[in-house]
Amino acid sequence: MPKLLPSIVSVIEIYYQYATEEGECNSLNRAELKELLENEFRQILKNPDDPDTVDIIMQSLDRDHNKKVDFTEYLVMIFKLAQACNKIISKDYRQTSGSKQRHHSYQHQEEQSETEEEEKGQESSSSHSSWSTGEENDSYSRDSRSIKHKTGSSSRRLGYQGAMAKMDLAQVNVLVTVNMALALALALALALALALALALALALALVSILTLSNMGLAHVCHLALNNMILDLVNILAMSNVDK
């Protein structure tokens, strides 16, 4: 028989039982909420006879501030009470489940120890039975080990030769790569030296051009100064003649 559905129906019926006491059936006023709390939750209320208890609960539930508690706000109260009760009840369930787990682990350890003892007994019996046949197969096992040793040594020699051949090929590849890198570096160095020589020649040519141009400019300035001095002397001479 289901238990959850009748509990839900009981929550709804209790709401309407107290909501219909004063005519309206869609909400709980302060008096109806007080009666509901005193009758249904008196055992868990901290101060059930204190009038402020109803006012505090009404303020926490009345979200639309109409001084009434509708069905949704009533469900919020039920939800909060369920959370509070879950904190207490869950501790008991955790303790019960923990004891069950410990008991189960203890049984498992006992079963495992019994299984290990049975396996040890079987191993001891099989070892006694195989002791007699082991002496007969010693010679055969020695021969087989010698054959395996010979084949293993030959395979190791072949593997060593193959590894050496691979190492030689790798060394040749490395040497070729290094030589190519050195040749490329040498070519780059020669190209850089030629570029530096060309730049030096261009710089020397530019210096020569600038030196020659400066010398020509100085000569022109000197001639112009001499001409100005001669003109001044002529002007002074002509002025003395007039006097």
Explained architecture:
- This protein is mainly α and 243 residues long.
- It has a domain at 4-108: Recoverin, domain 1.
- Helix content is 86%, strand content 2%.
- It is built from five helices and two strands, in the order αβααβαα.
- The protein has a two-stranded antiparallel sheet.
- α1 (4-19) crosses α2.
- The protein is elongated and about 145 Å long.
- The N and C termini lie far apart (154 Å).
- The model is unreliable at 128-133 (pLDDT under 50).
Keywords:
243 residues; mainly alpha; Recoverin, domain 1; two-stranded antiparallel ribbon; 2 strands; 2% strand
Catalogue the unreliable spans. 128-133
- Note the total helix count: 5
Strand content: under 5%
What's the CATH architecture name of the domain at 4-108?
Answer: Orthogonal Bundle
SSE topology string: HEHHEHH
Euclidean distance between termini CA atoms: 154 Å
Spatial shape: elongated
Q: Mind telling me the C-alpha Rg?
A: 57 Å
What would the CATH topology of the domain at 4-108 be?
Answer: Recoverin, domain 1
- How would you classify the helix and strand content by structural class? mainly alpha
Mean pLDDT across every amino acid position:
76
The oligomeric state is: single chain
Strand order of the largest sheet: 1-2
The CATH C-level name of the domain at 4-108 is Mainly Alpha
Short summary:
By secondary structure, the chain is mainly alpha-helical. Helix content is about 85%, strand content about 0%.
Helix and strand topology:
Layout: H1 4-19, E1 27-28, H2 30-40, H3 51-61, E2 69-70, H4 71-136, H5 138-242
Antiparallel strand pairs: 1-2
Helix pairs in contact: 1-2
